[in-house]
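Quick check before the chapter quiz. The format below is the same one you will see on the exam, so make sure you can read both the input and the output lines.
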Amino acid sequence: MSYQQAYMQRCLDLAIKGMGMVAPNPMVGSVIVHEGIIIGEGWHERFGSPHAEVNAINGVKNKELLKSATLYVNLEPCAHHGKTPPCAELIIAMNIPFVVIGCIDTFSKVQGRGIEKMIRAGINVKIGVLEKESRYLNRRFFKFHEEKRPFVILKWAETADGFLDKFRSPGNDHPYPVSSFESQKLVHRWRAEEQAILVGTNTALLDNPRLDVRAIKGKNPLRIAIDRKNRIPQTFHLKDGSTPTLVFTSQRLEGTTNLEYLQIAFQRPEQVLEDILENLYKRQILSVLIEGGYETLNTFLSQGLWDEARIFISPETIGSGVKAPEKPGYSHSVERSGKDELLIYRNEEDPFASQK
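Here is the expected output.
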């Protein structure tokens, strides 16, 4: 690894600290180096707060050193006025002569404009250091802006003999505890990292889930349910008003505090998921975690509307029950989570699939 790659890796390590806190903005870290020594660093900590470059510059005690320093950042500095002023203009104003960038920002309001502005000001700009790693870190952001839909993560747990659960009816029995405590805690971390979480009607009726973050400290995602015929009772957790919840239904219904109904057409089943993702895109939702049952998961899989599948495999068997969806026929990574195996698949149709 070259010295430039090492500094860019530090940017990535800083950037990921903003996971779950900065969306719909990207995760960005920045490092300022003077004569081989890091004199300032920072990351984008929260949506609406100062960007990484601002925090890195503010961390430099002797601002005179900036005139002969190099600023590293994993994503092109912004050139437009949003929640904060343009970072490219600040870099120019501070007379920083060298800037090294991981990858170009393909968001339409940036898309090379920050780089162009800095080059016109006489700054020496280098692009593409750890480019694949930089794009992979912000794969949700790039998916959202380049394909106009959220990044979709499928998650389920199955037994060693391939079942999601025992057969149950609404109001009877609790879900069969397929995954380990460690895996359940990990899922809560995933919930805190994504902007939204979605289930179908059957899962909502059978499990009465809270779909919030309890096992760790983190931000609750937007809860989403697909409930065509408005079958989920008002007494269920999803309708308790504790956290923002969106229900897609075929009916025109009035919402209440933290509960919104959105009427969509269900006449064409093959179009429902695309309509849902289009609505989430319009709401600036960069990512959604799918925790549904067989029908919901399988529909996302069969329509190719997914980017990652995270599957826990328990060593236990139950002999019969609700079959798990067929796993994607792609290569995958394998990790351990307590007593479970965790298989992670990435959609090979996804242009970022190999960019880890």
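If your answer matched, good. Residues 221 and 343 are 23 Å apart (CA to CA).
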